[in-house]
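Subject: sequence -> structure tokens, single chain

Hey, anyone have a minute? Need the predicted structure for the following. Not urgent.
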Amino acid sequence: MLEECIDVLKRGKRVVYIAPSRELIEHVRQKIAERFGGLINIDVIVIDEMEKNCAREFMGKRRLLPEDLGIMVLKQVMGKLAHREEINFYLKVYTRYGFLHSMVKAIKRIRRQYISPGEFLKKAREAGDEILVKKAEEIAVICDAYSEKLRELGFLDLEDLALVAMENADKSSYLDDVELIVIDGYINLDRIDRQLLKSIKQKRSLLRIMGHVPMNTPFIDRFIKDEIYKDFEEMGAEVVKKDFAEDGIFKELASCLFTGNRLSVLSSDIKVLNAPCLEDEVRQVAKIIKSILFENKTIPEKIAVITADMESYGDCISEVFEEMNLPTNQGRYLKLSTVPVIRDLFINLSTAEGDVQKVSDHAAKLMEMADKLNIKQKLNELYKNKTISSYIFIRDLKAYISFMEILNDIKREYAGFDEEIPFEDFLDTVKRRIEETTISVRGRNPAGIKILDPDLLKGTVYDYVFFLGLNEGIFPRIPAKGGIFTPHERELLFKLGVNLESPAWELSREKIRFILSVASAQKGLYLSYRNTDEDGGYLIKSPFLEELIFVVNLDRDSTSIAGPRNMRQRFALKAGDVWSLKEAVEMAVLERYVPLNANDSRQPAHELIYDALKGRAGWLSAVDMAHGIEEKRNSPESSNYNGRVGPGRVFRFNENYYFSPSQLNSFNLCPFRYFVERVLGVTVEDDEETAFARDKGNLYHTVLRKYYEGYENALEFDEQRLIRKAAEAFADAGLGDDDIAGIIYKKEITDVLKNFLTRDASYLSEYFRQTGRLLKPYYLEKAFFDESIFSGFKICARVDRVDLEYDGGRPTGRFVIYDYKSKARRNLRKCLEDKDFQLIVYYHLAKKELSKELNMVPECIALLYYDIENAKSEGIIVEEEKKRLGKKGNIDTISRSNFEVVMEHFKNLAVHMLREIREGNFMLPKRCFFTNAFTTYSCKYMSVCRFNEE
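Reply:
Had a minute. Here:
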């Protein structure tokens, strides 16, 4: 094809070379330049650019439609349709941005299928799906009204450009002297692009069209037979069959994928890696690449790193590769929304008062306000005074310029849009553009390692290919569930010839992307997946990777598949596996403090490495000092750095002493604070607000106990009973009706409890409806004492409430424990991460007592913190009971099989802490809750505490 192009160029004619990706475009341009000496009379572009070039001279005064303006226009159009009662199906959602964005995408996709709204409705009726027909009826109305509004405003969208180009294919000066159009690397074309090319061919009969698919394999051929090959036939294109991949193991492998065939021989050039987290996955690949380059096996630009999840992997690849001095073509970018000066500027401008006016006027006003702040001048002054570094100066200056360009673009693009909108809606438009914009903080290196999406590999080859993120849901991607049409509806339409990205069709395209990615390797192929996600959840290997392992017979070659890798291995640095200064420093620090024998030959070597690194990482001297302090902190001897006082000074915690769950939480939070309060007996008086909250909480508890005691009908709220019991509790607390403040206070308490008890009755009724069994209070403010559960340590606790399940009046042994709280709530994750012992101690005590009283093995279904003032509960919930307990949505739960394991684990932790207390070990925590948490409370003992995070 390149030879054909050069022959045409030599005759003084023009060539339009259409390719689907930046990589292939650069490759073709380079080859043409090498063979022809330049890029004269040839355009190597994507098909969208050809549409624009053909239509540009026929646009007149019409302008291209920005996406956010399209959404704004659609919102107004749908508002008018709703007012005229022409839409009903979308009536409740038509003002929401997410819906409007999805509708604009759906309209564009339908138009790219080159069918009218009426034809689309006809197809939907043929599908025979009632909901789809209702959607299509309203979409047809919306499409017509939307198109009419755009014509009225003088705007064209990209789909209109293709239509304009089609109408004027014979008159377009862009196509004058074009003798050849090449379509290379595509596996399918949108119908509107196919029609454009057919129109060009029909109206310019002397013009030739050549088509080429990057590779022919059995699977690809089955797909393209009804896609691009059919298109080539309709437009009269000459088809060139020549695979981009060279003959060899990787081409043979690609040909076998998704066919059921297997390779006959094993290959040592294919490796499968795994990692416990994203950074380790990237770091492993970076080390292998560094090793390959170190051994001069190739050059950086002949290495490709592929991932289908650039959003998650992009920043990590950039950081790790920069750390290892590996050049990439990616560059380094920052989201404009993450730059502090832009966040502050936007907040500042958002506080301005704005009237309802045209968008362009809003933009002009904001530009004027921003200009008056003199941000450029202030940045210059800060830099000259050396208050900020050159990096921050350049970053903030670029960010400010980019922000002003956004406002200027909005002002220009919306100049013909006369509709007036509120200032808040305009700010939403600006905010979305800020979130979508990035600034460059380091330019891309064209000769660097290629960081690519699999969609970009359509005809380019590399010596080594690394494919990251081969996990279920990442590659292949999960079909989008949102949007206007469901996956089922898209499949129905696809069968009728309307392709709105059918899930099955998209999966086939993903398979082809994988095949082409594999075929693009020449010397080595590395495939990588993660065992767990960034939250610790289990990740499944991609079915595409499983297919490749089957085809290559890798399951018979253990050397090609790395064994399962865990976090311990990730942090176990070895001298031969260090490829960056950061890793060298980490290894030196770790090795320096590992105990070594006096005769160990490693000692001098480590000392030399450590001393050498000090010159490049001066902060290592601080590590020495910190280590010295840490050693003193953990020394078995008493010193100023630790909290070991020994068992002789804590004799009060003998075998007769009763510990409480709150003491365990207090010790876990801060052993030093526990020491001050429980050993030294120092107490700091609560402030007035804390004391008031405690007294109010006590009143809540008292009224609830009185209300539930002897009350048999917990499924119904009895307001008169609440009033009586509240009056008793107020009288016991000495609260009279002497002043207006007291009356208001009591009413506030009663109103809160009325709401709580109403919700509680509803919750218990829902449980009865779900299960046919009654859940009602069994223990109320019950005191427990135990001497055996926690390895002989005595424990006492008062449990606010335990509900027991009854079936036909007989207890089943299933129970729920509640701890009443005012406002504060903790879900499962917080309970486990912060090692909250309260509910778990209650569980062990209540389970033992119920076992004795009921003469059966009881089963806990939930441990809940019950928020009185908001009538909501969270805590530790058994997954299988979530629905029965009225819990919906994405909340943390624990499986029944893991519940007892967690309870036993925390019991063992509690015993360990009790032993620490009895032995007099009150060391300062590694991290201080009050200095590290986002809390409004300050520690009462800050003035006497020795904790220093630095």
